[in-house]
Amino acid sequence: MTGALSPWWNGVGSGESFTLKVERAGQPPLPWTWEIVGGGGKAGAHRSLRGYRAAEEAWTAGRVALADMERSGRPGAPTAEQRAEIARKTAGRRNKG
Fold first, then answer.
1. Which of 47, 23, 79, 38 is nearest to 87 (CA)?
2. Dihedral (C-alpha) 35, 27, 24, 56: value to the nearest 10 degrees?
3. How confident is the model at residue 43 (pLDDT cuts 50, 70, 90)?
4. Which pairing describes strands 19-24 and 32-37: parallel, antiparallel, or unpaired?
5. What confidence score (pLDDT) does residue 57 get?
6. C-alpha span between 90 and 62 (Å, rounded)
7. Is-above-0.85 flag for pTM?
């Protein structure tokens, strides 16, 4: 063992556990965020792109992202939250044009 860190996606499907953390990290009105961390509290595999009004909202969005990440097992695969944000921005551009 060299002690080198492996990318988070190497742990998907290998039995390594991922944990969802929800914390108050911003200012009202959207202070709550989520982050998915690997076993042993390694750097976050994914984190929220925005804040949430309540911890429960952040928890729900984080659970969806965790399920997406575990299902896809691909590095850089966008989470449901990221896909929704992309769709929202695309729709906004279409409405302007």
1. 79
2. -80
3. low
4. antiparallel
5. 94
6. 23
7. no
